[in-house]
Design brief:
With about 350 residues, the chain is α+β, with helices and mostly antiparallel strands. The chain folds into two domains: about 240 residues, P-loop containing nucleotide triphosphate hydrolases (Rossmann fold), CATH 3.40.50.300; about 110 residues, Nucleic acid-binding proteins (OB fold (Dihydrolipoamide Acetyltransferase, E2P), Beta Barrel). The chain is about 20% helix and about 35% strand. A six-stranded mixed beta sheet has the order 6-7-8-3-9-10, with helices on both faces. A hairpin with a 4-residue loop joins strand 11 and strand 12. The structure holds adenosine-5'-diphosphate (ADP).
């Protein structure tokens, strides 16, 4: 059975001289061998939370447990160097004058030379750089250097690995590929890891569990599927994927709930709240770009306001006659001009609603 390895409970971190908390009552857990990712806009508190887990910031309230032991609370602060946590940062700062094997062996001074060599060989194999042990950092690509940094962090067998935006200095194309590779490496090493990123694709490529942060608060901690299909807050709904909110009215039909929207009625949903959840069933419904289908035969027309080419598809921003906006992913062979009116309909499997707000 997997055990809870990292347990963050109601954690608050407040910097001196600041009125608001950088991390505000964050709670989440990570099982042994799992990879967690914290995602959110710049300034939301991701790095502060990671640094608190590392022991580089103090908890002003709440607690952090590692393998059942409290390492941070207002009363307890286990120093960073005693936590057996490895870290990989954005500027991975390899030692330029040391070759790859010396860089990787740097934290292994306590081992005998033969053991150290063996451990270095094992982690370099793990990251696919066994052939590079005698090269110097400047002879490696950015992606290879980052894998050396990962090997260096894994070499002393940390109990937990923390990674803060490790790919942000790399090309976008390389980033997602490396994210998949790093996931494979961490899984092969059986490592438990916590990542910070602001990039959704990266988060989805790496994480078993993903936490969305906003203004110091962890808004939701869950699997990617749930963040997308069952967002807990409006912020999560808007942050993950592309979409907009539209006014809607839920009504109980004879055998199922119908959702009335400016785009027509939604039927045949897999999941939908009951009308009694809102006064008169009035609420806002999330319409994602994937939920909006371009259909020339549809009675509802919308005008293309903006379009962005995404390779296999366009992301259209559309305006309905009612003035409401929606977004739609449309296969890129349907290349319509900005200003054109096209037919659309909504096809929503998981209906996500929130209390009504002025649009
Ligand atoms: P993120 O990693 O999501 O960009 P941070 O954790 O770096 O966010 O920052 C969260 C908040 O804490 C921000 O308002 C930031 O200005 C503030 N902050 C970060 N580091 C410090 C610091 N050393 N002293 C004071 N405030 C800080």
């Amino acid at each position: 059975m997997k055990t809870m390895f990292l347990d963050v409970s109601q954690l608050c971190v407040q910097y001196a001289g600041r009125t608001s908390r950088a991390v505000d009552q964050a709670s989440f857990q990570l099982q042994t061998g799992d990879i967690g990712v914290l995602i959110g806009p710049s300034g939301c508190g991701k790095t502060t939370l990671l640094r608190a887990v590392a022991g580089l910031e103090r908890a002003s309230a709440g607690s952090i447990r590692l393998a059942g032991e409290i390492v941070s609370s207002p009363q307890v602060h286990l120093p960073a160097e005693s936590r057996r946590i490895g870290m990989v940062f954005q500027d991975y700062a390899l030692f330029p004058h040391l070759d790859v094997s010396r860089n990787v062996g740097f934290g292994l001074a306590h081992l005998k030379a033969a053991e150290r060599q063996e451990r270095v060989r094992r982690v370099l194999e793990l990251v696919g750089l066994a052939q590079a042990e005698h090269l110097h950092p400047h002879q490696l690509s950015g992606g290879q250097q980052q894998r050396v940094a990962l090997a260096r962090a894994l070499a002393p067998r940390p109990r937990l690995l923390l990674l803060d935006e490790p790919f942000s200095n790399l090309d976008v194309d390389l980033r997602e590929r490396l994210a998949h590779e790093v996931r494979g490496i961490l899984k092969a090493a059986g490592a438990t890891a916590l990542f910070v990123t602001h990039d959704q694709l990266e988060a989805f490529a790496i994480g078993d569990r993903i936490g969305v942060m906003h203004e110091g608060r962890l808004q939701q901690w869950g699997e990617a599927y749930d963040l997308y299909h069952r967002p807990a807050t409006r912020f999560v709904a808007e942050f993950i994927g592309h979409g907009v909110f539209a006014h809607a009215r839920l009504e109980q039909g004879p055998d199922k709930v119908v959702v009335h929207t400016a785009l027509g009625d939604l039927n045949d949903m897999q999941e939908c709240p009951l009308p009694s959840a809102y006064p008169q069933g009035l609420c806002d419904v999330l319409l994602r770009a994937d939920d909006i289908v371009h259909d020339d035969a549809a009675p509802v027309k919308a005008q293309i306001v903006r379009k962005a080419f995404r390779g296999s598809e366009f992301l259209y921003t559309l305006k309905l006659q009612s003035g409401e906006s929606v977004m739609a992913h449309v296969p890129s062979h349907h290349d319509h001009a900005v200003g054109e009116w096209i037919g659309i309909r909504a096809q929503v499997d998981h209906v996500v609603t929130f209390p009504r707000q002025a649009l």
